[in-house]
Design brief:
The chain has 713 residues and is mainly beta. The protein has eight helices and 43 strands. It has a domain of 99 residues: Cytochrome c-like domain (Cytochrome Bc1 Complex, Chain D, domain 2), CATH 1.10.760. Helix 4 packs across helix 7 and helix 6 packs across helix 7.
């Protein structure tokens, strides 16, 4: 049995010589002091700024400098870019815009909200000929996605670059193969620039209808595909034997995609790519084996896409334990020696730290025996890698004593607890299994911040999810159902439930009486294109969509024209999950004791914690005088050279500043809507600003539509 924790560079890679990668230069220098020129601050994804005007002493004097109201409202997960006094961002319906970064005045806006793919966006990518801000503006372009389309816009005017692809855009299905044709492929996260290349993340379905998640680089000037790395290997490629034969041809196995973004060491030409799980996420009977390169941190030659090294964090993933955020590039000191490192946070609540060039773990990682799945047809992997240091930043298990003391339904929670399985890497089961930390982490897409001293700052969720794995209905069991209900049962019941009530706590809206809130055209568009966490059901025919909408509108008497397939064209998987369900009481309050969200400072030189505090409050409990519970949070921190850490992220709608050395709260304000996004800080003229997108619309928080910038008087 082949057990690979770490694979060093292949022989073919060694031929190009280590000297090319072992340069004296390092890409951990702080990014431009006035700009926030790339996603999460720079190519190192450090969330770090060298600006010092706003300090722990004067941060209490911050006031609103300007606000920008988008023409629509809803989730805004964007980390905006600021280059030479211009701010670039996106609206809730994914229109790109440019603002005067000192006043918030709109310069241009691109896109029609009526044509939006109804997805979320975490921002845009900026490129110009020499990749340095301040050069020839006529060469500068903004690259961003709407659905499966990657657009290139003139940075000054917002108009599409006609020489890029087909009239200013390309389709991200390109290079994924025939298996991806007509499948759900979008991108939520900005691409990564290397020279004249943009390497794109993609989000896919997580079911058996998923497209393959190959990593691809496109020419920024022309849109042409330059290289492809196959995350599901093809014959002759490394890792091919970790899947069943010819898996790469299959239409019922996909995923292993990068959706969370990448980091790049430009001086060395190394791209760091964290990948997701293979699909279907929770049952691997059709993909027996270790499944490289799913759940891997990949180091690729940024020019060619060739693999340099990899580390697989979860073998044969059946828990949806994909990497949730880009890695951080930083320099640490180990045994008196400075080492350029790459750090990767995980949904499980661990930090994985490697030598950036060799892939050698800087703290030991041990293959550990884990429980075996008893689901027929499943062959779970017998061991999983567990880091020995740093300690996990999120709890790994809980007992009866850890059930929520503030819930009035403790008896019900206790009953659920006692009949369900739990424990690290405990496979899913018919009676239900706790996934803890939950499916959103641990760490989440906001990612971690690092500063030049080697300290990591990471916010974490501590919500338990409770999921059962049940036999999927056979076609003859569906035959008695109406066409619309059959389609709902196969495609929708896992998230919205058998009674269509959904779960606000888990992020899935009720579909009961949906016709009172939306018209058929809107609902059909969501089914086709997806929205938020929901993928688009591109495999359904027009007749099937019509039948499903009629069922949702309680009006199946309307005859659907065209043929209705037996539950759609999804490949059949013998098991389905009970639903994406958080462990909560009937009011949505967490089933476990607080803290439900934390903020952590970890010294990656030593692997020791500097401090750990609850982050956020549960509004319902805070109103009763119960504070410091922490809350679920989405969006990352920003740290500055002056000693501050800024973070929003919590559903209580606060924007906070902490002393990064001690974790002491030294400033907070209430935003117009919760800021489920990572802030940015920049300077225009002599003034430093901090800006945050306030879209709300998660965790039951109200919707918003504003970007809010703060500065000193």
């Amino acid at each position: 049995m082949k057990r690979l924790i770490l694979t060093l560079v292949a022989v073919s890679t060694l031929a190009i010589g280590w000297s090319r990668f072992r340069q004296n230069t390092t890409d951990t220098k702080p990014n431009d002091y006035t700009n926030w020129g790339e996603y999460l601050g720079g190519p190192d994804r450090s969330h770090y700024s060298a600006l010092t005007q706003i300090t722990p002493e004067n941060v209490k004097n911050l006031q609103v400098a300007w606000t920008y109201a988008a023409p629509d409202s809803g989730q805004i997960q964007a980390n905006p870019l600021i280059i030479d006094g211009v701010l670039y961002g996106v609206t809730p319906t994914v229109q790109a815009f440019a603002l005067d970064a000192a006043t918030g005045k709109e310069i241009w806006k691109f896109g029609n909200p009526a044509d939006s793919r109804l997805s979320t966006s975490r921002g845009v990518t900026y490129w110009q000929a020499n990749t340095q801000a301040g050069s020839n503006k006529s060469e500068a372009r903004i690259l961003y996605t709407v659905g499966s389309l990657l657009y290139a816009l003139d940075a000054e005017t917002g108009k599409p670059i006609q020489a890029f692809g087909q009239g200013g855009h390309i389709d991200l299905h390109e290079g994924l193969g025939e298996q991806a044709k007509d499948k759900f492929v979008i991108s939520n996260t900005p691409g990564t620039i290397f020279d004249d290349l943009i390497i794109m993340p993609v989000r896919l379905s997580e079911g058996a209808d998923a497209a393959p998640g190959h990593v691809r680089a496109f020419n920024v000037r022309t849109g042409k595909l330059v290289w492809t790395f196959h995350t599901i290997p093809q014959p002759g490629e490394y890792g091919y034997d970790t899947w069943p034969k010819d898996t790469y041809k299959n239409t019922d196995v996909g995923g292993a995609n990068n959706w969370s973004g990448m980091a790049v060491d430009r001086p060395r030409g190394i791209l760091y790519v964290p990948t997701g799980s293979a699909a279907f996420d929770f049952y691997g009977g059709t993909r027996k084996g270790q499944n490289l390169f799913a759940n891997c941190l990949l180091a690729l030659d940024a020019r060619t896409g060739k693999r340099l090294w990899h580390f697989q964090a979860v073998h044969h993933d059946i828990w949806d334990r994909d990497f949730p955020a880009p890695p951080n590039l930083l320099t640490v000191t180990h045994n008196g020696k400075k080492i350029d490192a790459v750090a990767q946070v995980t949904k499980s609540g661990f930090v994985l730290l490697f030598d950036r060039v060799t892939g050698k773990p800087l703290f030991p990682i041990k293959e550990t025996p884990v429980p075996k799945s008893d689901v027929p047809g499943e062959t779970s992997w017998p061991t999983q890698p567990l880091p020995t240091r740093p300690a996990p930043f999120a709890r790994q298990n809980f007992s009866e004593a850890d059930l929520n003391p503030y819930s009035a339904e403790r008896d019900s929670l206790l009953a659920q607890f006692r009949r369900s399985r739990r424990g690290t890497f405990q496979p899913l089961s018919k009676q239900g299994t706790f996934i803890f930390p939950g499916l959103d982490g641990g760490a989440e897409w906001g990612g971690a911040a690092t500063d030049p001293s080697g300290i990591m700052y990471v916010n974490a969720n501590e919500a338990a999810w409770l999921i059962a794995l049940n036999k999927a209905p056979q076609q003859d069991e569906l035959a008695h159902l109406s066409p619309g209900k059959r389609l709902y049962t196969v495609n929708c019941i896992g998230c919205h439930g058998p009674e269509r009530k959904g779960s606000v706590a888990s992020g899935y809206p009720s579909l009961v009486n949906i016709g009172q809130r939306h018209d058929r055209t809107y609902v059909t568009k969501i089914i086709s294109q997806g929205k938020g966490m929901m993928p688009g059901f591109t495999q359904l025919s027009a007749a099937e969509k019509q039948a499903l909408v009629s069922f949702l509108f309680d009006d199946e008497k309307i005859e659907a024209s065209g043929s209705i397939a037996e539950g759609g064209k999804n490949p059949y998987v013998p098991y389905k999950i009970s639903g994406y369900t958080k462990f909560t009481d009937s009011k949505g309050l967490s089933g476990i004791s607080p803290p439900w969200g934390t903020l952590n400072a970890i010294d990656l030189n030593t692997g020791e914690y500097l401090w750990k505090i609850p982050l956020g409050e549960e509004p319902e409990l805070a109103a009763k005088g119960i504070h410091n519970t922490g809350s679920e949070n989405y969006g990352g921190p920003v740290v500055t050279a002056s000693g501050l850490l800024f973070i929003a992220a919590t559903k209580d709608g606060k924007f906070r500043a902490f002393d990064k050395k001690t974790g002491k709260l030294i400033w907070e304000t209430t935003l117009p809507a919760a800021g489920f996004a990572t802030p940015a800080t920049y300077q225009v003229g002599s003034k430093q600003y901090v800006v945050i997108a306030c879209g709300g619309a998660k965790l039951g928080a109200k919707k918003g539509n504003q970007y809010v910038a703060f500065s000193l008087p």
